[in-house]
Amino acid sequence: MKMNEALWVGLRTAAGVCSLFVSLHGIYGIYGLDFRVDTLVSTTYVVLPIASFFIFLFVKAPKLEVSLHTIVAMGYLTTFSMLNWRTCAELGYCESVASTVLETLKIKPVLAAFGVIVFSIAASFADARRSKTADHTSSK
User: Fold this and answer.
1) Do the Cβ atoms of 50 and 19 come closer than 8 Å?
2) What is the pLDDT of residues 18-77, one digit of tens each?
C-alpha cells in the first residue's frame, strides 16, 4: 500500500468513526428528549445525526457526500442550539444567541459532525492525488 492510499484509508476511517459517533449520539438522543414541546425541532435533532453514518456508507459521489454531511452538520448545530436555547431560557442563564451557538459548537457530537466534513474533504483531495499518481505511473 502506497502512502497516498494509506492516507486516503486513514482519512476515510476517521470520517467513518466520526459519522458513527454522530449517528449513535442521535440514537441516544431519542431516549432523553421530550418530543411534545417542539416536535419538529426534536425530530430534526434526532433524524439528522442518525442519517450521518448512512450517508457515509451509501453515498459514493464525494461532492454529494460532502454536501449532505454539510447539511447534516449545519442542521444539527442549528437544532442543537435551539434546544440548548430553550433549556437555558427556561433556567434563566442565557447570555445571547451567539454565545449559545458557540457553546453548542464545542459539544463533541457537533464537533464530530463537522469533523466528518473535514475528513471527507481531505479524503477527496487525497483520492484525487492518488488517482493522479496512478494515472501518471500507468502512462509510463
Assistant:
1) no
2) 999 999 999 998 888 888 888 999 999 999 999 999 999 999 999 999 999 999 999 999
Cα four-point dihedral sign 4, 5, 6, 11: positive
Cell triple for 47: 433524524
CB atoms within 10 A of CB 85: 16
Q: How far is CA 33 from CA 62, 90, 133, in A?
A: 33, 16, 49
Burial (Cβ within 10 Å: 0-12, 13-18, ≥19) of residue 33: middle
Determine the 3-state secondary structure of 85 from DSSP: helix
Q: Which residue bears the cell 431519542?
A: 30
Does the CA dihedral 56-58-64-70 come out positive or negative? negative
Q: Which residues contact 105 (CB under 8 A, 6 or more apart)?
A: 77, 111
pLDDT digits (tens, 9 = 90+) for 117-135: 999 999 999 887 766 665 5
Residue 40's Cβ-side half-sphere holds a number of Cα atoms within 13 Å equal to 2
**CA-based nearest residue to 128, from 31, 39, 4, 36:** 4
